[in-house]
Q: What sequence folds into this?
């Protein structure tokens, strides 16, 4: 692959704005498990090897088992996730695949488990990882 633009060097203000959004997500009440499930699932859907590599390693550091990491892409058929985690994964999929819109059913299912603040933090975490995926894929970051 040919060398591509380095956003932090060319548009540091914009890159820092994205970093600040990530810092906000880090400071929220979202559990580390919820954050990593969101980051891994969105990255899988987007095909971002760089982010999948990073967030599966982070998931292990937070105590997420290998089995739960391996089964994220098939979470509907796996009995290793809580109902709350399944609601987060469903919402992550629909926000990531936004051209199909977010159904009332998926949104209301998530809303039954979480208060408005936590739900807002989930949505912002999904939006943030999707931004990172797009940046990494577009600029050619590679998993090592």
A:
């Amino acid at each position: 692959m040919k060398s591509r633009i380095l956003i932090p060097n060319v548009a540091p203000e914009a890159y820092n704005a994205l970093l600040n959004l990530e810092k906000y997500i880090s400071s929220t009440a979202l559990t580390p498990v919820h954050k990593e499930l969101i980051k891994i699932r969105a990255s899988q859907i987007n095909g971002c090897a760089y982010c999948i590599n990073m967030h599966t390693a982070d998931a292990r550091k937070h105590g997420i088992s290998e089995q739960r990491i391996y089964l994220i892409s098939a979470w509907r058929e796996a009995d290793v996730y809580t109902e709350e985690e399944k609601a987060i994964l469903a919402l992550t999929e629909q926000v990531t695949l936004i051209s199909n819109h977010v159904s009332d059913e998926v949104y209301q299912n998530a809303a039954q488990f979480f208060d408005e603040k936590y739900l807002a933090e989930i949505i912002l975490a999904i939006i943030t990882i999707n931004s990172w995926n797009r940046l990494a894929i577009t600029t050619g970051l590679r998993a090592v």
